[in-house]
Amino acid sequence: MLSQLRNTLSLRACASVCRLVHTKEKGKPLMLNPRTNKGMAFSLQERQILGIHGLLPPKVETQEIQAMRFQNNLKKMTDPLQKYIYLMGIQERNERLFYRVLMEDIEELMPIVYTPTVGLACTQYGHIFRRPKGLFISIRDKGHIRSILDNWPETNVAAVVVTDGERILGLGDLGVYGMGIPVGKLCLYTACAGIRPEKCLPVVIDVGTDNETLLKDPFYMGLYQNRDRSQAYDDLIDEFMEAVVGKYGQNTLIQFEDFGNHNAFRFLRKYREKYCTFNDDIQGTASVALAGLLAAQKAVGKPITEHRVLFLGAGEAALGIANLIVMAMMETGMTQMEARQRIWMYDKDGLLVKDRSQKMDSNQEAFIHDNPGNVQSFLDAVRTIKPTAIIGVAGAGPLFTHDVIKSMASLNERPIIFALSNPTNKAECTAEDAYALTDGRCLFASGSPFGPVTLRDGRVFTPGQGNNAYIFPGVALAVILSGVRHISDTVFLEAAKALAEQLTDAELEKGRLYPPLSNIREVSMRMAVKLVEYVYSKGMAFYYPEPLNKEGFVRATVWNTDYDSFMPDTYDWPALCSKLNTVI
């Protein structure tokens, strides 16, 4: 009788637990959802309760074994694009395992999920397509963007990365194929800063493409039309911004990525005081470049106010870097005019000078100088202006020629050479050329990764990679956690300082201008802590009450790759157990 009573109570409790589980995802769909799938790491009890027992081999694996399997398979591959496809396949099946594999070998795999391989993946997007990621909004959806956002399964989005695909890295207009960029950026939000992946939304806005090759490509996946550059385009972007904050809140971070130069500056000016937004190509690139210059100060022994900088390129990246350098110089007491006089720009039409016949953009006016003389080439510009630093952001390939590099070496004891264009084949020079032609005296950084360089005398230099990933994950984490509503350029100035101060003397001696990428998660955490402290001190934060322990506050929010348990919450009823014992 008592035995029967215990069994009845047990069954009733089980029925109650099972009903709770029935309200959640169960069975095969649980395994098909990358957010919940654990593969063979489901325990025996989970398999039985969730209705997936028998759908997996009998072995119960640890995540460590699963990661080892994928890592071994990756090591067998030599083609970067195949590695990209394989990694994205893991992300489509098992999200936590994907991030574990990525984070455990971030220095090796970041060039796969991000630049330079992501550029190649974008050019081949329609040919390697397997499963859609992110949200696709076209000009034909005008008036209905909110309903499209309602189709996105996650309701608590904190960060959006959006592109219209017009200027993908140094590759030009790739239209809807540009989706690989927001996806890759948001992978690094999670891997580098621990932002929960379900809070991230990648978006591509398709208004057509002017890339004739794509318009003739049967595998192209966007609208077969030239870019709409009418007022309808602006109206679409306006509607998108309003729909995002209307659904997810005013504090939602919206990162613009790889828009054309004109639109990038225009939208930054238009939206920066109305929304929580930034443009990584302008502000993120500027911050990481400035961090490299600040780090170089330690080796050169010369303050930033004494540098003279010559840019190859005068687009959004160059102007963003130049403006942030001006801010850094002004912090030391230099006037804005004095600071701007120390910055020169050279584009496809030559130096930005007052009597140039070619039309110049209004954004470039601050850096237009009197004509210094007969300058017919970038080499002439170097010899005439005598810069202490040259920064390449033109995306036009190896224009830092041997003569340019040698000229920089003759003008400076420690020439600063930044070849920041992406992907690798668009870089202004190689690390090997920079070190070899300056006898190892240069301070070099690149946008895409280069391996260590060994000179003839046996000295080994490790090139610094001026990767925006050092900046945007930490900035995003700080902005999201502190409830910043408008992101000032001073935030990126502080981010540059926070990055530069993390470089050790030992790393600088090896040729590095940035901390090792293998340590990027800790770099992002420290940066986020510094920025949270800064935005609260300046009254920019709207998250209250203000956390007293900023570091503890930041680190407590970090998402990790450990699997969740899907076992129901089971427990005894003390009063009932007491009565049963009394009866016994």
UniProtKB/TrEMBL annotation:
Q: Where is this protein primarily located?
A: mitochondrion
Q: Does the keyword Transcription regulation apply?
A: no
- Binding residues for (S)-malate: R167, N422, N467
Q: How is the cofactor bound?
A: Divalent metal cations. Prefers magnesium or manganese.
Q: Which GO terms describe its cellular component?
A: mitochondrial matrix
List keywords of the entry alphabetically: Acetylation, Allosteric enzyme, Metal-binding, Mitochondrion, NAD, Oxidoreductase, Transit peptide
Names of the cofactor(s): Mn(2+); Mg(2+)
Enzymatic reactions: oxaloacetate + H(+) = pyruvate + CO2; (S)-malate + NAD(+) = pyruvate + CO2 + NADH
Where does it reside? Mitochondrion matrix
Per its record, what are the GO molecular function terms? malate dehydrogenase (decarboxylating) (NAD+) activity; malate dehydrogenase (decarboxylating) (NADP+) activity; metal ion binding; NAD binding
| PANTHER family xref list | MALIC ENZYME-RELATED, NAD-DEPENDENT MALIC ENZYME, MITOCHONDRIAL
Q: What is this protein called?
A: Malic enzyme
Q: Lineage of this protein's species? A: Eukaryota, Metazoa, Chordata, Craniata, Vertebrata
